[in-house]
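Risk register update: the risk that structure generation would not scale has been downgraded. Supporting records follow, first protein first.
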Amino acid sequence: MYNVLTDGATMRTLISYIRVSTAKQGASGLGIEAQREALARFAAAEGFEIVGEYVEIETGKGSDALDRRPQLSAALNKARSLRSPVVAARLDRLSRDVAFISGLMAQRVAFIVAELGADADPFMLHLFAAVAEKERAMISQRTKAALGAAKARGQKLGNPKLAEARETAVASRVASADRSAANVLPIIGQIQKSGATTLRAIATALNARGITTPRGRQWQATSVKNVLERVT
C-alpha cells in the first residue's frame, strides 16, 4: 500500500509491532516508548509511513509463542490486508528462536527489523536469530556454572538464602551484559564493513539507527569499546 504525497511521490506504509516481556519493562532500552521512538526514526529515515501499531506484553520464549501473542497475529492480518511489511525495532522483539522466526517467514508477510536496516532479507533474519539462540544457550550454561562455582566455594555470608540471592543477581547482571553485547555485535560488524572503523564512528552509526545501549542511553566510544572487549 502506498500513499501519494503532494509532490507526486509515493510513501510506503508499515505496520509496527512493539513487545515487552513484562508490564514493568520500561527503562531498559526495550520499553514501549523507546521502541516506538526507534521505529518512528527508522520510518522517517527510510521514507515509510507507520499506519498501524500493535503493542504486546508477552514473553518471546518458545517456538509456539505466536499462539500467545494476539497482537502479533493482529499485526500480521493487518499487514496482509494492506500488503505492508511488519516492522519491529529489534529482532528479539519478535523472537530469538529460529523455529519461531521460520514460522513468521511462512506467513506471507514481509518483515523489517529496524536495527538491521530495510534491506535485511529473510536469510539474514534467520542467521541473526540462530546467533542469538546459540548465545542465549551459552549464557544459560555460564550462569549455571557461575552459581555452581559459588556454591562449591561454600560462600555463606550471613543468611544463606540472601547470599544465594546475591550470587544469582550477580550472575544475572553478567548474563544480561553478555546478551546485550551479543545482540549488538553483529550490527557493529555491519557498520564496520560499511567503512566506520573508529569507536566514535561506530557509536554515531548506532545512534543514527535508533539503537540504544542496554540502559536506554546514547552510544559513546567507551560503550562501544566495552561491548567489543566483552565478546573478544
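Supporting record for the second protein:
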Amino acid sequence: MNRIHRLEGLVYFARKTLRSAVRWYLQSRAFLTGKRFCCSALAGKSSYNIGINSDLSVSCNCRDWDGAGRLGSLRENTLEEVFASTAAKAFRRKLAAGRLPILACAPCPELRLVSPEEARQEEVNYHVPSRGIMVENTSLCNYRCVSCSREKLVAARKAASWSTEDLKTVAATIKKHRIETVAFFNLGEPFAHKHVFHQIQAIRAENPSVKISSSTNGILLNTDEKREAALMLVWICFSIDGPDTRTMNKYQRGAKFEAAYENMKRLVEYRDKRSARAPLIEWKYVLFNWNDRKEMIERAVSLARGANVDVISFWPTRAPIYGISWRYYLSPFFRKIGQPCWKGREIVLRETAETVKA
C-alpha cells in the first residue's frame, strides 16, 4: 500500500508540475498577444463540465480532485446563487485579467483565449447551464487508477454519496433549469451506489425528456436492477483499458477483465431481449504505450464484436505522462482504425448505434 501511495504522490506531483508549466505558457502567451481568457463552463455555455458532486458542492470542472474548483454548494444555496458566488466571480475576474485561477484551467477544453473586450463581457454575462451538467452520485470507487488522487478526493468531499434529500435537490435543480443532458458520473463509480436504480429513476421522473448518460468500469454493473438502471440511459460506456486483466492493471488497479467484459456483454443481451434501442453501449479503450500494440487492438475489436456492443472507441491520453501512446500518433495502423472523432478513433459496429446516440 505504501508503494501505491508513493506512486500516486509522484503522479500527482508530475501532473501539478506540468499544469503549472502550461499555465505559465498560456498566461505569457495572453500577455504577449494582448489577449485575455474566458471559460465556457463559468459562462453557463458548457454541456458537461459544471459538476454537482457527491456532497452537493458544485465544481467548475470535471477533475476537481482537491476542491480547488469549488464554486459553492447546493446545501446552502441555489444553483443561481452558486453561479453568482464570490468564488465564481473571482474566477471570472482573474480570467478577464489574463490569469488562470486554478491549475485545472490549463488543460481544460472550456478555456478560450479572447480579446479583452470579449473577456469583460463574459465576466458579467453568465447564466446557469441549461445544455448539460455533470452529477456525481458517489465518489466511491472499487478501482485505484494510477492518475486517481483518491486520498485528496476523500479529503475534499464532505460526503461520499448522496442522501435521499440530496437526490431530491439534484432532480429539482435539473427540472428548474430545464437542463437537457445529464452526465451521471464523475470521479466515482456510479454503479457502486446500491440505490443507483432509484437515483436515475428519480431524476428521470422529475425530468422525463432529459438525456442521461453514464460511464462505468463495469465490475459493479452486475445485477438485473442495475441493468434496469442502465436501460434508462441514452448512452453508457464501459472503460476497459486492455484485452486482459494483466494489461488493464498497469493503469486500472483492481480491474478484472473477465468480470467487466461479461457485464458489458450481459447488458447488451439484456437490452436486446427487450428490443430496446437505448442505451448505446460503448467500449471505451484508453490508449497507453502498454496496451496499444496492433495485436492488442485487433484482439479488443474482435472481443467487442463478440460482445455485440454498438461502438468501440480508442482514446489517447496524456496522463500519466510516461504512459503516452506514441504509436497512436506515429503508427499508420491507427489511421486505418475506424473513423476519427473527438475521442480519438471509433469503430461503429452496429448500424443502429448512430441513431441511438443522436
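Confidence is low (pLDDT under 50) at residues 354-358. On this basis the risk owner (M.S.) recommends closing the item.
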